[in-house]
Amino acid sequence: MKDRFGRDLEDLRITLTHACNFSCFFCHMEGEGNENLSGLPLRDILLVAKASKDFGIKYVKLTGGEPTLRRDLIEIVKGLKSLGFEVSMTTNGVLLPRLATKLKEAGLSRVNISLHALDRETFKKITGVDALDKVLEGIKSAINANLRPVKLNFVVNKMNINEIKEIIDFSEKLGIDELHLIEMHPVGLGKSSFSYHENLNIIEDYLKKNSTKVTIRNKHFRPRYYLNSGLVVEVVKPYANPIFCAGCNRIRLTVDGKLKTCLYREDKVIDISGILKTNLPEDDKLELIKESFKLAIAIREPNFKYTL
Ligand SMILES: Nc1nc2c(ncn2[C@@H]2O[C@H](COP(=O)(O)OP(=O)(O)OP(=O)(O)O)[C@@H](O)[C@H]2O)c(=O)[nH]1
Ligand code: SF4
Ligand code: SF4
Question: Superkingdom of this entry's organism (predicted)?
Answer without folding.
Answer: Archaea
